[in-house]
Design a protein that fits this description.
The complex is a heterodimer. By secondary structure, chain A is mostly helical. Chain A contains 13 helices and no strands. In chain A, helix 4 runs antiparallel to helix 12, helix 7 packs antiparallel against helix 10 and helix 10 runs antiparallel to helix 13. Chain B is mostly helical. Chain B has a single domain, classed as MetI-like (MetI-like fold, Orthogonal Bundle). The two termini of chain B are about 45 Å apart. The chains are: A mainly alpha, B mainly alpha. Chains A and B meet through helix 1, helix 4, helix 5, helix 6 and helix 9 of A and helix 1, helix 3, helix 4, helix 5 and helix 6 of B.
């Protein structure tokens, strides 16, 4: 084990403050009265719940609900689609290389041809554009494969001797053993989809289908100095992430550390 | 496999593994939404296309224009400065943090705190950063009477520093996990043996730990560079390329070309160029790691 230094500890302490400061500030500013920013005071004017009560439904809360539904569905489907793929690779189908290659393709650079493709498929301005291209995730396949390769294969062989079908092996033997990896993959998949900023703007320009990120950027653009409203909106829209993180933080960081060795 | 009923069953030469069908949905979806665009980007790069009416072929014209585009040159320089600001800090701070935290009581909680910004609702993060650090009405500026105001509304350097700081803020936690994974792979006997032989702590750190972490650090260097080449979310959220185009990194330049100026063909040619650089980087990394 390496030993620490005073200098190192100070830096790590400062970095931790730097990491948490914007989040703590959001939680604090959400309770500030409307005149706080105008007067440039952050203490002494009391606190209020009004900012939360006044959050607009159509331009914030509905996008929040929509994103919750879409990102949860995408994260779930990524597991459903990736698990059989990881199983097939573990059984000896030589496809891992394809997924590793696809994992290294930077998706941002394919936005133009993807736009053309969605246009040809008549999926532009269609909410399906927020779902279908994300259903298969090479990252999820890779994460589940590295989990599956740690499963003692005698379990699977025993189940096979008992006459279990592949589908039964997947759902009854593998899935329960892969709970940790599946949890981590689902949390990361959810967050990745949840945090798409430009893609939803590009493929859907209908305000009925705003996602949470589109709503937040519009809110900031229109009220750059409304600390209270902005803070309340930011905290409410971050609750899903915060809750997931509080429950599953250990799984996520452990899996990332373990999967990277 | 389709043995006729009369012929004796012969073992097929090419045997499919059990459950091979599990790959079909993934591979089909990825072929359509990644594979096809990866090929299509080359075709679009030979078009003049506004994204609406069918494009016209212009051969290699877009590529010729790339070579003489002063805005692209500027964007490249901006990207290099951005990479120079983020990469050393990204790699250095994550190595320092991981080494410092290894085996301490606070390891878990600090790692959890550092990783949180990477998942936090990004639009909310932008709000937090904007209200804290905005040059005019930001908290920091207001509370210090303007002394600590980072003038990113009109100074190019300040805007780049802001984008770099935001980027590091978002990704440091992940980088720490990468280095930690590497650290946990170093057998503690190696370090103990060095100490028994009289090596000082700084020798242990610089001459044993850091060299053994090389694969992790190379990995971070490469993913950091790839990210610098294509990232644009932070720029979009905080500065929109400004002031005066000073934060127009390559990824944002690409986004503007296609989705604000509607020059899809030119944007596709630029994508091809960046893809080529990205794949070269990835290949170099693979080679560097294989030679370990």
């Amino acid at each position: 084990m390496p030993r620490g230094t005073i200098f190192g500890r100070v830096i790590v302490g400062l970095l931790t403050i730097f990491a948490l400061l914007p989040i703590l500030w959001l939680a604090y500013s959400a309770f500030l009265p409307p005149n706080a920013a105008l007067q440039g005071r952050i203490i002494g004017d009391g606190y209020t719940f009004d900012n939360f009560v006044k959050l607009p439904f159509d331009t914030l809360l509905r996008p929040l609900l929509l994103s919750l539904v879409l990102s949860s569905f995408v994260a779930f489907m990524q597991l459903v689609i990736a698990l059989p793929a990881a199983y097939a690779i573990r059984n000896g189908t030589p496809a891992l290389g394809i997924f590793l290659f696809l994992l290294s393709v930077p998706a941002e650079l394919l936005l133009i041809p993807l736009y053309g493709l969605l246009q040809n498929l008549h999926l532009l301005n269609n909410p399906l554009a927020l779902v279908v291209p994300f259903l298969a995730s090479p990252f999820t396949v890779f994460l589940l494969y590295s989990g599956i390769s740690k499963v003692p294969w005698t379990f699977v062989e025993a189940a096979r001797l008992d006459g279990a079908s592949n589908l039964q092996i997947l759902t009854k033997v593998i899935a329960p053993l892969l709970r940790p990896e599946m949890t981590a993959a689902a949390v990361l998949g959810f967050a990745a989809h949840w945090n798409l900023v430009l893609y939803p703007r590009v493929v859907l320009n209908d305000s009925n289908w705003w996602t949470v990120q589109v709503a937040l950027t519009e809110l900031l653009r229109k009220n750059p100095n409304a600390w209270g409203t902005l803070g309340a909106a930011a905290i409410v829209t971050s609750l899903p992430i915060l809750i997931l993180y509080i429950i599953f933080e250990r799984r996520v960081t452990k899996t990332l550390e373990g999967g990277l060795k | 496999m389709n043995a006729t009923p009369s012929s004796p069953r012969v073992a097929p030469r090419f045997k499919l593994s059990p459950g091979w069908w599990g790959l079909v949905p993934s591979l089909l979806l990825l072929a359509v939404f990644v594979g096809y665009p990866l090929i299509q980007v080359f075709q679009i790069s030979t078009l003049k296309w506004d994204g609406v009416i069918a494009g016209q072929g212009v051969g290699l014209g877009n590529y010729a224009n790339l070579l003489s585009d002063p805005d692209l040159g500027r964007s490249l320089i901006t990207t290099l400065i951005f990479a120079a600001l983020t990469l050393p800090a990204f790699v250095g701070l994550s190595a320092l943090t991981a080494i410092e935290l290894e085996g301490t009581r606070l390891e878990r909680i600090v790692k959890a705190a550092l990783f949180l910004p990477g998942l936090w609702t990004i639009g909310a993060s932008a709000i937090g950063w904007y209200t804290l650090y905005a040059p005019d009405y930001g908290v920091l500026s207001t509370l210090t009477g303007g002394v600590l105001a980072l003038p990113w509304g009109d100074k190019a350097w300040a805007a780049l520093v802001l984008i770099a700081a935001f980027t590091i803020w978002q990704h440091l936690g992940y980088a720490v996990l990468v280095v930690s994974a590497g650290l946990k792979g170093i057998p503690s006997e190696v370090l103990e043996a060095a100490r028994v032989d009289g090596a000082s702590e700084s020798q242990v750190r610089w001459q044993i730990i850091v060299p053994l972490l090389r694969p992790s650090l190379i990995f971070l260097g490469v993913i950091g560079s790839l990210y610098a080449l294509q990232s644009y979310t932070a720029v979009f959220l905080l500065t929109r390329g400004g002031p005066f185009g000073s934060t127009r990194v390559l990824g944002y330049f690409l986004y503007e070309t296609a989705f604000e100026k509607f020059e899809f063909g030119y944007g596709a040619a630029l994508s091809v160029l960046v893809l080529a650089v990205a794949f070269t980087f990835a290949a170099l990394q693979a080679r560097a790691l294989r030679s370990e």
